[in-house]
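Good morning C.,

I know you're traveling, so I'll keep this short. The sequence:
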Amino acid sequence: MDKGRFRVRTGVRDWLIAVGVAAALLVTGLSVHHSASGLGLLGYVLLAVGGLALAAGRRAPVAVLAVTGLCAVGYQAAGFDVAAVAFLFAVYAAMRAGHRIVTVAVSVAVLASLPLAALVSGLHSTGEAFAQARGALQIAWLIAAGAAGEALRQAEQRADEAERTREETARRRADEERLHIARELHDSLTHQISVIKVQAEAAVHVAQRRGEEVPEALLAIREAGREASRELRATLEALRDDDTTPPHGLDHVTELVERAGKSGLEATLTIEGRRHDVPTAVGRTAYRVVQESLTNIARHADAGTASVHIDYRPDTLAIRIDDDGKATPDSAPEPGIGLLGMRERVTALGGRLRAEPRSEGGFTVQAELPVERAS
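The tokens, ready to paste straight into the viewer:
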């Protein structure tokens, strides 16, 4: 349906161009020739036919090229000193359709015939006739240069659009693959881990009710089940966190701090600077940095307090998370998957991440995310 409307608009445009060129040729012919003889009438007819023939330029470019060329030579011979404008339009249409060899051959023939036609008309001497042909050739080169520039511009636009389309396709495929992995993890692991966790919890509960000593292996299994369940939920949440679902951002950091406080960690949040909107990717990354940092503090730092500091700067969002754990420069832990994931997220946005123990004790995570660059 849309293509049909497009064809109608294209046809109307072609006819408007053809009628406009024919009218321009006739007006020019009337201004330079006032004879009402049979030869004069023939010249007017050739002017009109040469212009109106352009309406068929898309369907039959070679035929239109021949007709406009013959008309140009014909009205020159009839004494009409009018530029071969319609023929130039036909040359452009034929070249655009891919008929290069035919177009060059016909163009050479017409350009060679125009001075001869001017000589036959008796309006010009030999020198004037060839000078007129040279002027027509210069006009043709001018129009060709403009047409080539426009064609190059359109080609560059199409290339840019193709590049954007490839990027969008790659991003969509990556999102689909990520969601596929999330479904596979959910279907294959969630049930089994839940069974292990429930069975371990039940065994520990039964042993405690009987007053029996709970084996260390059973307690380790229970703790491992809890840990695996939390890790799997976090992984699935990260995999499903895409642009099609409402993303976690800076507005949700407060919830992270409150949740950390409920788990026994004394956590505080400080926000400085003039708060302003940041790109979604920056907000999501900031949330993940805070989330992973607080999770690591609760699991590994053996800390009692943690502080989250967010600073809104004009072109940067600065984040700092400190804890009072037992980490020291001499006992720096090996970077885990969580820390590596944070670094990759920050680096992907053009930011910087520093995570290291402090000399006075405790661990610090600092991230700087450029706001303008990420947008």
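Safe travels,
E.
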